[in-house]
Specification:
The protein is mostly helical. It folds into 4 domains: 211 residues, Serine Threonine Protein Phosphatase 5, Tetratricopeptide repeat; 117 residues, no CATH class; 98 residues, Alpha Horseshoe (Serine Threonine Protein Phosphatase 5, Tetratricopeptide repeat); 64 residues, no CATH class. It is 37% helix and 8% strand. The strands form 6 sheets. A 3-stranded antiparallel sheet has the order 7-13-12, with no helix packed on it. Strands 1-3 form a two-stranded antiparallel sheet. A two-stranded antiparallel ribbon has the order 2-6. β4 and β5 form a beta hairpin. This is RagB/SusD family nutrient uptake outer membrane protein. It comes from Larkinella humicola. Belongs to the SusD family. Keywords: Cell outer membrane, Membrane, Signal.
C-alpha cells in the first residue's frame, strides 16, 4: 500500500505540473498542483504512511525484552558495548515533510473541513514522530515549521519533555477532533478510532512514565495524562465498533489475528497488509524458523510461568511447578500459550503432509519456541514468502490501556475488570475470576516482576498485558515506563530437564525429540537432537547449561553478564549529530 501511495503521489505531481511548465517554474507548478485541490492534499498525505512500522518491524519488535532469550545479549545492556558512536535515530527528514504540508494546506478554495481533515492526519503523524523521539531520547527540539538549510533553528538546543509532550497531546487532540474517516475495511488507514487508539497508547506511556520515573519530578502531572488515556480508550470502546475476535473458539481465535491473510476486521484496527500482486510479503517464517537469519528469540520460563491455569489460578501456586517437565507444564493452561509457542499437538504442513512439530532446538534456546507470527506451512520458511497481514494496533490493546489507566488512577471497578481483563481471559478459555477484580496479590508476580506494586488489580493487568501483547513490540517500552529495566538482567531460562542422557518426547507423539548430555553417546537415536550442556566445549565456557548441572532449567548465555544501568532508560544522542550541533548536549550518564 505504501508503494502505491508513493507512486500515486509522484504521478500526480508530474502529471499536474506538466501543463503549466511553460508559464511558471516547475517547483511552483508542483506545489500549486498539490495544495490547490482535495486530491492533491490526499496524495501528499498518503506519503505520511511511510512513517508507520513495516510488517518486518513489528515481527522483530520484541527482540529486546526481558522475556526474550536470543542469539546474543543486546549491546545496550552489555557493559561498554553501546554508546554515542553506536547510537542512531536522530533523523528529522520525515518531520520536515509533515511540517511543509501543514504550512501550505491553507488554500481557501478547498473547504475548511477538508483542510482540517488532512491537517489532522499530518498532525497525527507529527505526534507519532515526536513520541518516538521522546521515548528514545527524552528532551528533543520542538520544530513546527519546514526549515530550510540556512535556518538558524537547525542549531537550536533541546526543548523540555513537558513542552514537547504537551505539543504532542495538542496534535493528537486536533487529529481526533478533525479526522473525518470513521471506517476503513482495509485496516490500512488512519481513522478517528485509530487516532484515539494512539492517543490512548501515548498518554498511558507518558502518564506512567511520569509516575514511576520519579527523577524527573513530574509525578504531579501524571494524573492528567492517565485521564486523557482513559478518555481516548473509552472513545474507541464506545464509538469504534470493534470487539474481541472469538471466531474459531478459544483454541484458534487468538492466533488467527496474527496469521490471517487479511486483517480480522472486528479486532484489528490498523495493519501492515500484504499484496501478492505487487510482490509485497513479509519474512516472519524465515526470521522465526531459521538458525542463522533471525535472532532465534525464545520465551523464558520465568515469563511462561505467568500464564494462568484454565481455572484462573496462578500456575505458580501449583505444588511442584518448578520441576514439571515441558510436557506437563503446558497442559491445562491459558489457551494463548499453545497459540504463542509450539506445544502439545501443534502440527505443520510439509509438502501437503500434516506433521507433528515439537520445538526445534536449532531454532530455540529455551524450548519455548514462538509461533505467534509464523504460518504453519513450511513453504514460507525459506525467504520473504509470508502472506499474513501484521497487526499494528488492535482492540485488545485498547482494553488494556483503559484498564491500566483506571487502575493507576484508583477508579478501576468490577465492571471495568469484566469488560477488559475478564473478557480477554474468557477469550483465552479461562473460566475463573472473570467478573470481579482480584483481592489478593499474586506473590510470584510481586517477587519476580513488580515488588513495588501491591494493588492486586494492577498486578493482574500487567500480567495480562505481558501475555496478550507478547512479541508485538510493547514489552521494552513497558519496562521503561514502569521503571523496571532491572528485569533485563533476568536469567534466560528454559524448560526443566529432569536428567542427563534421558530422551524427551516434547509433544508426546511417541517419538523422542531431544537429549541433553555432557558426554555424547557413541550411539544416537535417529531423529533426536542432542544438546551439549557440559561446563566447557573445546575449552570455551558453554553458553547452554542446566541450572543444577546435571538437571534443572535450561540456561542460555548465563556466562555473559547483563547489567542494567538507569542511563539506559534513554538512548545517547549520536556522536555525529552532537558534532554538527553541540547545543543539543547529551543524556545523563552517556
Amino acid at each position: 500500500m505504501k508503494l502505491q501511495h508513493i507512486g500515486l503521489l509522484l504521478a500526480g505531481l508530474l502529471f499536474a505540473g506538466c501543463s503549466e511548465l511553460e508559464q511558471i517554474p516547475e517547483s511552483t507548478a508542483s506545489k500549486n498542483s498539490v495544495f490547490s485541490s482535495e486530491r492533491g492534499l490526499e496524495l501528499y498525505a498518503n506519503s505520511f504512511y511511510d512513517n508507520l512500522p513495516t510488517a518486518n518491524d513489528i515481527i522483530r519488535s520484541d527482540e529486546m525484552a526481558d522475556f526474550a532469550a536470543r542469539t546474543q545479549v543486546p549491546d545496550l545492556i552489555r557493559d561498554g558495548a553501546y554508546g554515542p558512536r553506536q547510537s542512531s535515530g536522530w533523523s528529522w527528514t520525515a518531520l520536515r515533510n509533515i511540517n511543509y504540508f501543514i504550512e501550505n494546506a491553507t488554500n481557501p478554495a478547498i473547504p475548511a473541513d477538508v483542510r482540517r481533515h488532512y491537517i489532522g492526519l499530518a498532525r497525527f503523524f507529527r505526534a507519532l514522530f515526536y513520541f518516538d523521539k521522546v521515548k528514545r531520547f527524552g528532551d528533543v527540539p520542538w520544530i513546527n515549521k519546514a526549515m530550510g538549510v540556512t535556518d538558524q533553528d537547525l542549531y537550536k538546543g533541546r526543548d523540555s519533555r513537558v513542552m514537547v509532550m504537551d505539543s504532542v497531546l495538542a496534535d493528537l487532540n486536533y487529529a481526533t477532533q478533525n479526522i473525518r474517516t470513521t471506517s476503513d475495511n482495509s485496516r490500512t488507514l488512519i481513522t478517528k478510532s485509530v487516532a484515539n487508539g494512539y492517543k490512548s497508547r501515548i498518554c498511558l506511556f507518558e502518564g506512567t512514565f511520569r509516575k514511576y520515573q520519579t527523577s524527573y519530578k513530574l509525578e504531579s502531572t501524571a494524573e492528567k495524562w492517565l485521564t486523557e488515556a482513559v478518555a481516548a480508550s473509552e472513545a474507541v470502546m464506545n464509538d469504534g465498533g470493534f470487539s474481541l475476535n472469538e471466531a474459531g473458539g478459544t483454541d484458534k481465535s487468538y492466533r488467527q489475528l496474527f496469521i490471517n491473510k487479511t486483517p480480522v476486521t472486528n479486532e484489528i484496527m490498523l495493519s501492515a497488509v500484504v499484496d501478492p500482486a505487487l510482490s509485497v510479503f513479509n519474512d516472519a517464517n524465515w526470521w522465526w524458523t531459521s538458525a542463522t537469519y533471525g535472532a532465534r528469540v525464545s520465551l523464558t520460563r520465568t515469563f511462561v510461568n505467568t500464564y494462568l491455569n484454565l481455572d484462573g489460578t496462578p500456575f505458580t501456586s501449583k505444588a511442584g511447578y518448578k520441576t514439571l517437565t515441558f510436557m506437563e507444564e503446558v497442559k491445562g493452561r491459558d489457551k494463548r500459550l499453545p497459540q504463542t509457542i509450539r506445544s502439545g499437538n501443534y502440527t505443520r504442513v510439509n509438502g501437503g503432509a500434516v506433521e507433528p512439530a515439537p520445538p526445534v532446538f536449532s531454532y530455540t534456546y529455551t524450548g519455548y519456541m514462538p509461533i505467534k507470527w509464523t504460518l504453519d506451512d513450511t513453504y514460507a520458511d525459506g525467504g520473504t514468502r509470508n502472506d499474513n497481514s501484521i497487526s499494528i494496533m488492535r482492540y485488545a490493546e485498547i482494553l488494556l490501556d483503559y484498564a491500566e489507566s483506571k487502575a493507576e488512577l484508583g477508579t478501576f471497578t468490577d465492571a471495568d475488570w469484566t469488560k477488559t481483563v475478564g473478557a480477554l481471559r474468557k477469550r483465552a478459555g479461562i473460566t475463573g475470576g472473570l467478573t470481579a477484580k482480584p483481592t489478593v496479590a499474586d506473590p510470584y508476580l510481586q517477587a519476580t516482576y513488580f515488588p513495588g506494586i501491591s494493588d492486586p488489580s494492577l498486578l493482574e493487568i500487567r500480567r495480562e498485558r505481558g501475555i496478550e501483547l507478547a512479541l508485538e513490540g510493547f514489552r521494552f517500552p513497558d519496562l521503561i515506563r514502569w521503571k523496571r529495566g532491572e528485569l533485563m538482567e533476568q536469567v534466560w531460562n528454559g524448560f526443566y530437564v529432569p536428567a542427563l542422557d534421558k530422551p524427551m518426547d516434547l509433544n508426546e507423539d511417541g517419538k523422542n525429540d531431544v537429549v541433553f548430555y555432557k558426554v555424547k553417546p557413541a550411539t544416537q537415536l535417529a531423529g533426536v537432537t542432542y544438546i551439549n550442556v557440559a561446563e566447557t566445549v573445546n575449552g570455551v565456557p558453554n553458553p547452554q547449561r542446566l541450572s543444577n548441572d546435571t538437571s534443572g532449567e535450561l540456561t542460555w548465555l548465563s556466562n555473559i553478564p547483563r547489567k542494567w544501568n538507569d542511563k539506559y532508560y534513554l538512548y545517547p544522542i549520536p556522536e555525529n549529530d552532537r558534532l554538527l550541533n553541540p547545543a543539543i548536549g547529551q543524556n545523563p550518564g552517556w
